[in-house]
Amino acid sequence: MKFALSFFSILALIIAGTLFFQYHAYSSDLETGGGDFHYSQEIEIVYRENSLDIRQHFKNLPDQKVNIKWPEKAVNPSCFIENEKSCNRLSEELSYFAKGETKSQSVSYIIPIEGGLKNKMLLQNIFATLTNGEASYSIVHISTDSKVQGQWVTGLPLVGQQQLSLVNYTMFSGYGAVHDIYWQAGGLALQEQTSVLSIYAQQAIPNDFLQALKNIQFLSDEHIAIIQDKSPVTAHDDRLLFLPALTPEAVEQEVILSQIKSQFTFEDAPEWLPEVVASYLVNDVIGTDKAKKIIQTLNEYMTANQQQAWQDTLKNMSDEPITPATMDNHLSQVLNAKTSYFTLNAAQKNGTYPLLFEDASKVYVDGIQREDVRVILYEGQKLYTADTLLPYLGYSAGEGEHGYYVNSENRTFRFPLNHGFYVFNQRRYSTISEPIIKIADRYYVEETWLQRLFLVDLQKKDQQIQVISQEQQ
Question: Along the chain (473 residues), what's the average pLDDT of each consecutive run of 10 residues?
Fold first, then answer.
């Protein structure tokens, strides 16, 4: 009984200590502004010839220190006194909101526009943001002089616009943040708006196009604005898309790719990699020819269960950076076989690299591990990378005018590809199988031919392959 009481006393102390340290860390986050949070915002913009006068109201702020990140082009940042508490948390140097119970704070600043508002002008990253904070809902009001005729666009749904005697007024409202705004003079107008899309164009949109939009499966409900323009803007917010032509295929591809780039983090990724991920998530092949070929290769190899496991894996990758290497790691687990399929295709500029599987064994040449020597399984054969292995055996190796050449001081080989023979020391020998095989842009030597022609002994044990040169012994 005493032992039980003692045990539970110690356990209680451990739990109390853990809670204390967790609370201490949590309190520290509140004091230093390290805690993540969501907030809503309302932004009032007035265009005055050569600048945007902005009032920004942050709402639902947490009871913690919140650091403010001002736009790079902002001038005259200050408090906007809406009521007696609208700035009571704003620090004197205007760099943060102090810890406090007031939920709403308001600021103002000016964004200069050199030369004034111009046609097809994209104004980027012009709003203040809060460090560690994510805007869950935004309302934007834009007012201009009544003489300024044109269309404002944000990534938010358009609520309404009105032309008054002195002022033109436009209002947007919706979920998520807003970073950029776009201005175009002339006849650009909202032609269609759904829960996911706002489509702006000069002309009305055909009904068959609108019907096709209903069949597109998007990745999220975050609203996106599409602007039809024959000379599209290339650098823009993910919530603003510029398309030279409005087709269901173009809208589907661009919207889905925009959504996936906002949901996932891609690092050192070629253009086709987000296309591959997106295609599996929406169950529809989109993207470049290379992406389509990669998807076709994987689908032809995978079983139905593997395809489902692969889709589930991709859906859960939003918490980690996606690179060709991480894709290979996950694909290897799904297929239960090691592969560098995505890494090899990232390095392959022209065409696609085939789906190959690797022997995970470490390769040693005369007792020294050689990490650049890879062993792959291909059409029932075991192949070694010739360019990296043969030099360790005392040979030079490379592609030449009439085939693949392998030379040492006393032995010379030439391997014409797919000709059914090889040449050794100027003498021709017929073959049934190919000693040297070229796959994409790499050369491999088949295992039995490696032993026969290059005089090596192979010893395999405990996930190791020992390549021992008999010629040097």
Answer: 45 43 41 75 94 96 96 94 89 95 96 93 95 95 92 95 91 95 92 92 89 84 89 71 88 87 90 94 90 96 95 90 96 94 91 91 94 91 95 94 93 92 94 92 94 94 91 57
CA 19 to chain centre: 37
Residues 270 and 322 in one domain: yes
The answer to whether residues 128 and 205 belong to one domain is yes
What residues make up the domain containing 279? 264-347
Could you tell me if 221 and 291 lie in one domain? no
User: Which residues face 445 on adjacent strands?
Assistant: 384, 436
Burial degree of 210 (CB within 10 A; 0-12, 13-18, 19+): middle
Sequence-ordered list of residues with C-beta below 8 angstroms from that of 370, at least 6 positions apart, any chain: 363, 364, 388, 389, 392
Check whether residue 321 and residue 385 sit in a common domain: no
Q: What's the rounded Cα separation, in Å, for the pair 369 and 367?
A: 7
Give yes or no: residues 42 and 8 share one domain: no
pLDDT for the residue numbered 417: 86
In a domain, 199, yes or no: yes
Are the beta carbons of 192 and 199 closer than 8 angstroms? yes
Confidence (pLDDT) at 4: 43
For helices 304-315 and 272-282, give the axis angle rounded to 10 degrees.
Answer: 110
Whether 2 and 105 share a structural domain: no
pTM of full prediction above 0.90: no
Return the SS3 of 242.
strand
- At residue 7, the pLDDT reads 43
Task: Confirm if 414 and 427 have CB atoms less than 8 A apart.
Answer: no
Residue 461 tokens, joined: 């044990």
97 part of a folded domain? yes
Q: Do residue 300 and residue 373 come from a single domain?
A: no
- What separation, in Å, do the N-terminal and C-terminal C-alpha atoms of the chain show? 73
Please, what sign has the CA dihedral across residues 399, 403, 409, 411?
A: positive
Which of 347, 372, 400 is the last residue before a domain boundary? 347
Give yes or no: residues 399 and 455 share one domain: yes
Local structure of residue 316 (DSSP, 8 states): T
User: Domain boundary at 237, 261, 285, which?
Assistant: 261
Q: Domain count of the chain?
A: 4
Residue keyed to tokens 């998807």: 295
The predicted structure's pLDDT at residue 262: 83
Residue 198, amino acid: S
Angstrom distances, CA of residue 338 to CA of 341, 359, 399: 9, 7, 28
Torsion of CA 21, 27, 28, 32, to 10 degrees: 170
